[in-house]
Amino acid sequence: MFTDSHSIFATWRNYFSQLLNVHGVNDVRHTEIHTAEPLVPEQSTLEVDKATEELKRNKSPGVDQAPAELIKARGRTICSEIHKLTNSIRNKVELPDEWKKSIIVPIYKKVDKTDCSNNYRGISLLPNTYNILSNILLLRLTSYAEEIIVHHQCGF
């Protein structure tokens, strides 16, 4: 059993590193991908406003340390900046490096607190600006999927 904070931290870092890091990524072959990017419009300010409202209150922020309450309270000013950011990301087709990092928090789920491999699950705290872009994409994909499913869905 570990009692000092450095050993505990090292154990968690090692556990989540082995669990989440993919080895052999260099083996992935580059292939030509055809997308519908020209058909996808930029995010509107209305989409950003709606996605911002979807942020959950009283949740821990990610590495940006910007809680949802702060983003919601700043209103039009911050939504305008987030709108510019999300469209910049769309045009560059690359996420900011800060969005590729998360804070992993182990959550206890079973009896033996000393066995991290079976009795804990990790949750990732992501930046709320990342969550806004994710909400925009979710709303777009959901409405698109509903169009397709309605016409082809069968049921009892």
Q: What secondary-structure arrangement, pairings included, does this model have?
A:
Layout: H1 5-20, H2 45-53, H3 68-74, H4 76-92, E1 103-108, H5 116-119, E2 120-125, H6 128-152
Antiparallel strand pairs: 1-2
Helix pairs in contact: 2-4, 2-6
What would you say this structure looks like, in words?
The N and C termini lie far apart (55 Å). The protein has helices spanning 5-20, 45-53, 68-74, 76-92, 116-119, 128-152, and strands spanning 103-108, 120-125. It is mainly alpha-helical and 156 residues long. The protein is built from six helices and two strands; from the N terminus they run H-H-H-H-E-H-E-H. The mean pLDDT is 79. The chain has a domain at 62-156. Helix 2 (45-53) packs across helix 4 and helix 2 (45-53) crosses helix 6. The chain is globular, with a radius of gyration of 20 Å.
The helicity comes to 40-55%
Low-confidence stretches are none
- Secondary-structure-based class equals mainly alpha
| Envelope shape | globular
What's the gist of this structure?
With 156 residues, the chain is mainly alpha-helical.
Main attributes of the structure:
single chain, 156 residues, mainly alpha, two-stranded antiparallel ribbon, 6 helices
